Amino acid sequence: MTDASPSSTSLPAAPLGRTGPIVSQLGLGTMTFGAESDQDEAFAQLDAFVGAGGTFVDTADVYAGGESERIVGRWLADRDADVVLATKGRFGPPAGSAGASRRSIVRSVDASLDRLGVDAIDLYFIHGWDQHTPVVETLDTLASLVRAGKIHSIGWSNVTGWQLAEILTEARHGGLIAPCVVQPQYNLLDRGIEFEVLPCCLDHGISTTPWSPLGGGWLTGKYARDDRPTGASRLGEDPDRGVEAYDTRNTDRTWEILDVVRAVAERHGRSMGQVAIAWLSTRPTVASVLLGARTVEQLRDNLGAATIELTADDVAELTAVSAPGLPPYPYGMIGEFCDVPHWKRLGTAST
Strand, coil or helix: what is 269? Predict the structure, then answer.
């Protein structure tokens, strides 16, 4: 198996939507910083990422209670690196203010600027839907922060199709700034955003920067069908962890997908993780795939995805085996009686 880590300046780049910054095809997610990765390890990951040509670093105010932002800020001060910096607000660290209200977002942005040690945030995500705050209030607040020079572009994370549609409608009617990017979970094991979120993004020229490209480690092939994970891994420490919980994903469909990922990886002499990331990079709307690693060794393996040239047959095989299929109603009925080009393009329906 070859390492094939990309050399300096080897990562392709793409713009985020029609109005956002240009970022590297692979981004560095920093949720592990200050929690699973200490500062020395985090600095090593950041150095390796930038050395490989990476330009997009993504954090959030809630990661390790704000410590992830502090670590990134200390690294920026020490290295003076030129990266596109993204962070998020909505939930807030213990000392912050939760929610997407005007008061909360202003306080959250100021706190993030202080922890990061920068004058402006290149890309600011609202970390999730806030049912208690009118969307127009959140959008108006973000627009005022852009005018004040505190943030440059905006995005939204973890939204449904109807929520994204409401955000875009309110932005258009109010003459406000619309998000240039959405940040969802997206990988071979979970393609649920293809029903509505991705079609909405395709219609409006919005990019995506997916998180969890390896499905919480599942797509690396490190878990076994009849052996609950133990030890120093995310599921080893917590088998019931979130959407990637062992009992939730230990299904025949998962193992069928892993068999194909393994076969493609063997054909290319690469790791399964690299294949899963490379497939995701081919998907419509995906501008940058967020890599989240505990160690620099894991990160270097993930970065190797940039040098895989999957064949059309590879992509088709991976897309077909992981197709989620359309739920009978309303999607199945719509798919049967209407021509839905986005679903055909994405390969969402089971074949």
Answer: coil
Give pLDDT tens digits for 224-278. 888 876 766 667 667 777 787 888 888 999 999 999 999 999 999 999 999 999 9
Distance between CA atoms of 46 and 33, rounded to whole angstroms?
10
125-162, pLDDT tens digit by residue? 999 999 999 999 999 999 999 999 999 999 999 999 99
- One-letter amino acid at 323 equals A
CA-nearest of 163, 96, 112, 176 to 133 is: 163
Would you say 326 and 343 are in contact if contact means Cβ atoms under 8 Å apart? yes
Tokens of 47: 């150095």
Closest CA to 104 of 116, 90, 122, 115: 90
68 contacts 60 by C-beta, under 8 angstroms:
yes
> Is pLDDT at 296 greater than 60 in this prediction?
yes
Instruction: Kindly state the tokens that stand for 136.
Output: 């127009």
Q: Which pLDDT score, from 0 to 100, does residue 246 have?
A: 81
The two three-digit tokens of residue 71, written as one number: 């670590």
C-alpha span between 71 and 87 (Å, rounded): 13
- Amino acid 285 reads T
Evaluate whether 270 touches 260 at the Cβ level (below 8 Å).
Answer: no
Classify each residue of 239-249 as buried b or exposed e, where b means 16 or more C-beta atoms within 10 Å of its C-beta. Answer: bebeebebeeb
Contacts of 34 (CB under 8 A, 6+ apart): 42, 63, 64, 65, 67, 68, 70, 71
Rounded Cα distance between 87 and 126, Å, is: 9
- Give the integer Cα–Cα distance in Å for 174 and 287: 27
User: For 275-283, what is the mean pLDDT?
Assistant: 98
pTM: 0.94
Which residues are designated catalytic?
A: 63
- Residue 183 and residue 158: Cα distance in Å, rounded? 6
Residues 6+ positions from 245 with CB-CB distance below 8 Å: 235, 239
- Residues 31 and 33: their CA atoms lie apart, in Å, by 6
For residue 123, list its beta bridge partners.
86, 153
CATH T-level topology, domain 13-314: TIM Barrel (3.20.20)
